[in-house]
Amino acid sequence: MAGAIKLWDPLVRVFHASMIVAFFGNQFFTEEGETVHQWLGYYAAAFVLVRFFWGLRAEGAAAWGDCWPTPARLREHAAALLGRRPFHRLGHSPIGALVMLTMMALMALLAITGCMMEEIDYFWGEEWLENLHELLANGLLGLVCLHVAAAIYESFQLRENLPMSMITGRRKPLP
Fold first, then answer.
1. Phi-psi map region of 173: left, alpha, beta (phi>0 left; psi -120 to 50 alpha)
2. Which residue, 9, 83, 128, 135, shows the most beta carbons closer than 10 Å to its own?
3. Which domain holds residue 109?
4. Residues 170, 57: Cα–Cα separation, whole Å
5. pTM exceeding 0.85
6. Mind listing the pLDDT tens digit for each residue in 96-146?
7. What is the spatial distance between Cα 103 and Cα 78, in angstroms, rounded to a whole number?
8. What angle do CA 81, 83, 84 make, to 5 degrees?
9. Does residue 106 sit within a domain?
10. Would you say 94 and 77 are in contact if contact means Cβ atoms under 8 Å apart?
11. CA neighbor of 112 nearest in space, from 49, 21, 27, 28
């Protein structure tokens, strides 16, 4: 991409790919309680922790300060969406950042509830915990669908392939 700028560092891109593999692997290709299901959960939990701390230390689009969804940022982005105006911003949009942070929190909660069910005898076989784990997974699936739809919508709105920027790490400069 001529004139593209470096946006997403390798750690953020590996994190994104890891979340895709872990979530879809557990949601659609493994059975509850299987060893591979558990290990994908541990893998996701470890990467959520790494990404959390990386956001405190990173610079640019990967830094929490760059994308943190403050009320003012959320209002500005919502107004642009409601007015059907393009919202040009490098990195995550404010609403996109809110969804991303929620997905990370849900992934962490899935790891915690999964660990509680498998590793702590006190909670073994607790139906409420199994139901909560399933509810969290279904909620995350809904947010993933929203995330994908929003990336496609914004790609058309901005006339730029946003998913490709997560793969290549590069993006067109702002107009």
1. beta
2. 9
3. 5-83+93-171
4. 20
5. yes
6. 999 999 999 999 999 999 999 888 778 878 899 999 999 999 999 999 999
7. 20
8. 60
9. yes
10. yes
11. 49
